[in-house]
Structure formats: structure tokens, C-alpha cells
Amino acid sequence: MFGLHYNLERSAIGLVVFIVLVASIGGLIEIAPLFTIDETVEKAPDMRVYTPLEVAGRNIYIREGCYACHSQMIRTLRDEVERYGPYSLAVESSYDHPQLWGSKRTGPDLARLGNKYSDAWHTVHLTNPRDVVRESKMPAYRWLLRDTLRTDDLSNHLTALRTVGVPYTDEQIANAALDAYGQANPETEAADSVAERYGAETNIRMFDGVTDRLTDMDALVAYLQVLGNLTDAAHQPNQPEAE
Ligand code: HEC
């Protein structure tokens, strides 16, 4: 053992080769699972893409740093499955660029938040969490209801997502701003075309109760309400359900 070391240290090239060999073991262990990525990621034919309004909401979620306190990944541990629902599957994050799994839970996991609360609850909670959860220490985000949502750049956001593999069509990209408006304004023609382009399951409603314009709140609530609902894959019979 020490003889080998002694000899290695006297041969510069041998030492370098040995160091590279040893150092690459960790790298290989990290890289090897990616060779089977196609079999690892589940199939989800029903997977739908985020609408432009939801993409805008996701960007606000990132901007406000919600991921610093909330994870979006339910682990396979029993207590997590019982608390939050079926554990997260890889395919559920496949349109998330960047992923928002997070690494810290000051607040609860949000991976299956969609439809848990009403839009009105979210609007009140985000404006001042203490109004609905008395002991909450989540910050208040009062400006979300005040600030008008920027939509003129949404086509660019969709284009960027398509570049990294999200299957947006040309039509969806071209109509991004109109679709954002339509999703929060039911009873308009624009709302009908959102359902056509993104499917009948899309949540089309006024999310924040502000009637005269789109706000950042509309977008963020639309995003929160779709969390865990892009695909049904995790609820299929071969996946574990909380008892
Ligand atoms: C400083 C940490 C912190 C930050 C930042 C934060 N939250 Fe929270 N959040 C909490 C805590 C703690 C709770 C639990 C108490 C409550 O419900 O208010 C919570 C609860 C929630 C809930 C209710 C979840 C459930 O299942 O009951 C939602 C939804 C939520 N937060 C969304 C957000 C969003 C969206 C943002 C960013 C705009 C955000 N949070 C930022 C700490 C945080």
C-alpha cells in the first residue's frame, strides 16, 4: 500500500493519471443515471404546457423568491405522501425551466397545491397571510394586487421555453399576450381561444377580483392553482396514494 504510494509520488505522470482516475469516480456516479434518463422519466401523454398567464405567474414566483421558503417536490417518504399526496414524479417537472424543487421548507410544500384553496383565499393570503392564517410568518406581498401585469414580453418567454424543449406551437407563441388576457376574462372571445389552444381543463376565470386590468396577482394565483395538475400521472393506479 505505502510502496504503491511512494512509487506514485515519484512519477509525476502516474500521479496525475491516478488523481484523474480517482476524481472521475464521483463524476461517473453522478453522470451514469443520465444514460437511462429515457426509461427513468415516466410517460405522461396527458401532460399539458403552462399557459402564458401561468408562465407569467411562475416568473413572479421566482422574482419574489417564494422558492426560498417553499419546496415543490414531495419525497417518497410515507409522512410526506400522507401530508401532501402522491410523491412527485420526474415527468411533472419536465416543463419547468428552471425547476423549482427548492431545498428549504419554512412553509409547506406546494407541489400539489392546485385546487386546495379558492382564488379568493390565495388573493387574501398573499396580500396579508395573517388575515387567513393568524400565526403565519409568511411575508405580505401587497404590491401583487396593485401592479399591472406585463404581457407584451410573454411571446418571448414562450419562445425561450420552446428553445429548451417545451412544445409550444407558433400559434400559442404569437397569441401569448391575448391568451393571458383571455384566461382571466371569461365570457370573452379571447377566453374561448385559450380553451382551444390549451385544452378544456384550463382554469379560465377572474383570479383576483380586479375587473379592469390584469394584475401580477392574477398571474401568480393562476400558476398556484395549476401546481400538480399539469398531468394526472402521479394519480394513476400504479402510483402510491395517501391512505
Ligand atoms: C419567509 C418564508 C416564506 C416566503 C418567502 C413565502 N412563504 Fe408562503 N408560507 C410560509 C409559511 C410559514 C406558511 C405557512 C403559514 C401560512 O399558511 O401562511 C406559508 C404558506 C403558504 C401557502 C399555503 C400552503 C398550504 O398548503 O396551506 C401558500 C399557497 C404560499 N405560502 C404561497 C407563497 C408564495 C406564492 C410565495 C411568494 C410570493 C410565498 N409563499 C413566500 C412562508 C413563506
Automatic annotation (TrEMBL):
Alphabetic keyword roster: Heme, Iron, Membrane, Metal-binding, Transmembrane, Transmembrane helix
Membrane-spanning parts: 12-35
Domain (Cytochrome c) ranges: 52-228
Classification via InterPro entries: Cyt_c-like_dom, Cyt_c-like_dom_sf, Cyt_c_oxidase_monohaem-su/FixO
SUPFAM superfamilies with a match to the protein in the record: Cytochrome c
The keyword Metal-binding belongs to this UniProt entry's keyword annotation: yes
GO molecular function: electron transfer activity; heme binding; metal ion binding
Domain of life: Bacteria
Protein name: Cytochrome c oxidase cbb3-type subunit 2
Organism of derivation: Devosia psychrophila
